Amino acid sequence: DTLYEIIAYNISMDKFMQRIIALCGGGSNGKGTFIKLNYKFLGKGNYVSSEIKALSEDRFEASTIYRKLLCVMGEVGYGDLRNTNQLKKIAGEDKLSFQFKNKDSFTEDNTATGICLTNALPITPDKSKGFYRKWLIIDFLNQFNEINENLIDKIPDIEFNNLAKKCLRILKELYKNPKFTNEGDFDERTKRYEERSNPVMKFVEGQCEESPGAKISLRDFTNACNKYLIDNHLRVLNANQI
């Protein structure tokens, strides 16, 4: 239901729900196929690819998403998120400044849904509810055997007509009740983001025991922590990051 709601939200140029969407998980779990479905449904010219770091730091990068319906952002680095104000504007909170090279800047509403495909989220310096409430995080937990055929090309065109009709109905319901299925309240969204951006603390809480006077070397701790991260399809960290 949530994925249908995302597809429906993407066809609206009004980002009334003020969300940035993160599809989290390791490889071969369906994230890419879901995005390809969105590409086919929206049509060429209505989507673009970018990166969180570029959108946050490069004043010209926002021009790539001008008048688009979907912006897909790839794997994010540990420290990619420094300017959270720009990201919150992209979610639909405020007017966004656009500037094309050799042109004057202008201010408009953002029309593109930001979707991030990643196995972990970047550490955020912004701990406000205004930041956390904008994230819709969906875990892709399954892993599929390698598929050598393009599944999207096998879908008949008539099914995309049916999908369009369904999305219009769903979008009407979202306007009445602007919440995604199972997105959780503000506190749950905060917890989900922190678990996926700072999984070391979750490892400590769930896998470590505190014993007065006991010690463990950073190397041993790092190895144990990374085993936990790999088992949970999360990004491996070096000792300095930990």
Structure description:
The structure is a single chain. Helix 1 crosses helix 6. 39% of the residues lie in helices and 12% in strands. Strand 2, helix 3 and strand 3 form a beta-alpha-beta unit. It is built from 9 helices and 7 strands. The model has no long low-confidence stretch (mean pLDDT 91).
> What is the tally of helical segments?
9
Main structural class? alpha/beta
- Largest beta sheet, briefly? 5 strands, parallel
Tell me, rounded to a whole number, the average pLDDT: 91
Q: How helix-rich are the residues, as a percent range? A: 25-40%
Order the strands across the largest sheet as they lie in space. 2-3-6-1-7
Overall 3D shape: globular
Uncertain parts: none
Offer a few descriptive terms.
242 residues; alpha/beta; two-stranded antiparallel sheet
Annotate the secondary structure layout.
Elements: H1 2-10, E1 20-24, H2 31-42, E2 47-50, H3 52-57, E3 70-73, H4 84-91, E4 96-98, E5 106-108, E6 113-118, H5 129-132, E7 135-139, H6 157-176, H7 186-197, H8 199-207, H9 218-231
Describe the structure in brief.
Helices cover 39% and strands 12% of the residues. With 242 residues, it is α/β, with parallel strands linked by helices. The chain starts with a helix and ends in an 11-residue tail after the last helix.
